[in-house]
Amino acid sequence: MLPIYLSFKEMWRNQGRFLLFSLVIALITVLVLFIAALADGLGNGNREYIEKLNADLIVYKSDVALSITASQLGREKLLGVSRVPGVTDAGQVSFSSTVVRYQGAKELNVSLIGVGPGKPGEPPVVQGRGLQDRQAKEAIIDRNVALTTGLRVGDNLTIKSIQGAKEKLYTLKVVGISDGRQFFLQPSVIVPDLTFEQIKPGAVPTGNASDLISNIIVVQLQHPSQWKQMESVLASQVSGIQAVDKVTAYENTPGYAAQQSTLGTQQFFSLLIGVLVIGGFFQIQMLQKVPQIGMLKAVGASSPVIALSALAQIVMVTVIGVAIGTAATLLMALTFPATIPIVFSPMAIVLGVVSILLIGPLGGLVSIRYALRVEPLTALGLSS
Amino acid sequence: MANSLEAKSVTKIYQTDTGVTRAVDSVSLTVQNGEFVALVGPSGSGKTSLLAMLATLLSPSEGEIIIAGQSLMEMSDRERTRFRREKIGFTFQANNLVSYLTALENVELMLRLNGKYDRAGRERARELLARLGLGDQLNNLPRQLSGGQQQGVAIARALIHDPALVLADEPTASLDTERAYQVVQTFANLIHEQNRAGIMVTHDLRMTAFADRVVQMMDGKIRRVIDDHEEITGFSRGTLSSAPPEPRAPRLVPRLAPS
């Protein structure tokens, strides 16, 4: 109790100084949590569609280094994959980038995704209905498109597509709205596969379903837990393909790994700066308290009392700072539009908060060690 | 009267780059309960090193120190810390008080350190501070107190836990004459009233007027012991002094293991 008593009294009687430092820790907390949220948000923007796929494996053309845009898979591959024992369903999925025109002249860049109606790859809707016909002029928009454009179920949306040298406009009916399904950092418009073939930029439609070429095939398994074995089975039974799980798939989307490692590095250095700032503050404070610590030791305060008092103070200052920083971050997050790529996942917040709570005592270790080395002789003006 | 302190042929030798220095050289000293001893001497005479050894902050190179019947020589560092906390009261020249504790809390700190923080202890702390004329300063922080008041709080802290030996290192160094006299007189009175053994290191020979005995050190040895009241009075007025005060300077001592 005595260490906590001493550290609390010191903080209470020097509230301004300690509050100021707690605010510094709060700022570090905000920085760390925002970088974590940005990493999640940007990562989400890249992987959301694949991560939420109602499938267990993703099939690519072999020898394309898991590049979705380079992968091209024909109908025969879909049939081959579908026939492999253990596969319950499979669907072709194609990707492109295009523009949605709304409210007159406003435009929104979107990922255009072609899927087989009712097949793996089509997201479940939270409003409206799913796709029904492979050639229907209809679309499911994800939550982000809906929020940005204000489009609702039953509205018409216009797809602007450059085909050849011409700009073509296609009108589709919004039949459903899904949750967030971003891909390539863009919100998504999901259309039937044959419609996709017609409206995608650069399209040269054949109108023949048997010629349909997609980027990937998404596969549902009878036993999802056996996905690792099924990767090999698929590759051995269907030539020219490579099957991977969803995590491997989105980690190999262009720029994803570089983006995440950049943000991870930023987060690491934020924490490192936090350690140095906290360590520096408590070390300077400790240097100022040397005569007082010497006096305390001279009158009989033991080293554990001195060390625990310093540790308790560091923990209290850090906890207050982290609490202020976390509350401020979450309050600020409420003011952000949903379209900004910042996602505060509970796991990221907990990890960030725990990291900063740990760096407090870590940064203060040097000052605690210094306090333990103060000699009680200093109280008598004697020095070594 | 029982002896509270016995120092037997205590010697402190420092190894320095230039050779061996005997900072304290075969000093023997006995202080009884209720006796207030002034330790005087010029800078480098060894009085602070002797005080540090009596306070268990330094280990003697030779000799033996017994306080309240317990020899310090057989104690571990941890036992010395505990012994210092329980049996010794301390006031210092500067940085006497914990800056973020009030006058009352500073005194109560010794009770907390010794696990004696109870209602009776708290009441005793208030009474002691009132006895020192600080009854209306209980809740003031050190920075709100004058130098004399701070020394008063330090004296109360040195006495609150019933120590066997009370040590004061230059308690009047930063005080004006009038306050210095008040502080030392109060200190001496409390030593007598509470039947403690007290040792005060001072440069100011005038402050020895309140001592029962004056021990004058020179070059690490006891040069003279004055225990006659009239002689002490003369010494304190400078008529007996053969060692005029000199400015105090920091001394080099070896590093100690953390306590």
Structure write-up:
The complex is a heterodimer of chains A (about 375) and B (about 260). Chain A is built from eleven helices and ten strands. Helices cover about 50% and strands about 20% of the residues of chain A. Chain A has a six-stranded mixed barrel. Chain A folds into two domains: about 1-45 and about 255-380, no CATH class; about 55-245, no CATH class. The longest helix of chain A has about 35 residues, at about 15-50. Chain A is of the alpha+beta class. Chain A has helices at about 1-15, 15-50, 75-85, 145-150, 195-200, 225-235, 245-250, 255-290, 290-300, 305-335, 345-375; strands spanning about 55-60, 85-100, 105-115, 125-130, 140, 155-165, 165-180, 190, 215-220, 240-245. Chain B is α/β, with parallel strands linked by helices and about 260 residues long. Chain B has one domain: P-loop containing nucleotide triphosphate hydrolases (Rossmann fold). Helix content of chain B is about 30%, strand content about 25%. Chain B has seven helices and ten strands. In chain B, the strands form two sheets. Chain B has a six-stranded mixed sheet with strand order 6-7-8-3-9-10, with helices on both faces. In chain B, strands 2-1-4-5 form a four-stranded antiparallel sheet. Chain B starts with a strand and ends in a 23-residue tail after the last helix. Classes of the chains: A alpha+beta (about 375), B alpha/beta (about 260). Chains A and B meet through helix 1 and helix 9 of A and helix 1, helix 2 and helix 3 of B.
